[in-house]
Amino acid sequence: MLIGPIGCGKTTLMQRLKNEKIQYDKTQTLEFSANFIDTPGEYMEHHNMMRYLRTTSTDADIVVLLQSATDRRLIYPAGFCSAFPKPTLGLVTKIDKATADDIEYSRKLLLTAGVKKVIPISSMTGQNIDQVREALKND
To answer: Coiled-coil intervals in this record (predicted)?
Structure first.
């Protein structure tokens, strides 16, 4: 299950992992596909909708939090992952458009949210996507 704010790269990551053509596609509602649950960014940005994320996570094997390296907002509160009875993984996205400081800042935000492992990625260039595939297999 992919969780993150609007524009953080959830759908693009899913397209990359499924070897599909990368194209912008705004997720309007929960989208279930083979091995993925893509969630709308509004579910994370509007706190009254977070309950849908918790409920939907029961259908997931792993919860993946995405934090764009180009977005310095605090999206996930400290300990956010404790809301999910599933393993969690953190991905810093859009690293091809960010500085090393931006990437490190985003990594720290994800660790504070409670993920155990963070992988910096670029879905556009494919950087570190193989690490994501491996992490998803093992969790």
So the answer is: none
Nearest to 17 by CA among 80, 100, 91, 118: 91
**Per-residue pLDDT tens for 95-113?**
999 999 999 999 999 999 9
Q: Is 17 exposed, middle or buried (0-12, 13-18, 19+ CB in 10 A)?
A: middle
What proportions of the chain, in percent to the nearest 5, are helix, strand and coil? 40, 15, 45
All domains of the chain in start order, with CATH: 2-138 (3.40.50.300)
First to last CA, the chain: 12
CA distance 14 to 7: 13
Q: Can you give the pTM of this predicted structure? A: 0.92
Q: Which residue in 15, 86, 12, 74 sits closest to 47, CA to CA? A: 74
8 Å CB contact between 39 and 10: yes
- 63's enclosing H/E stretch is strand 63-68
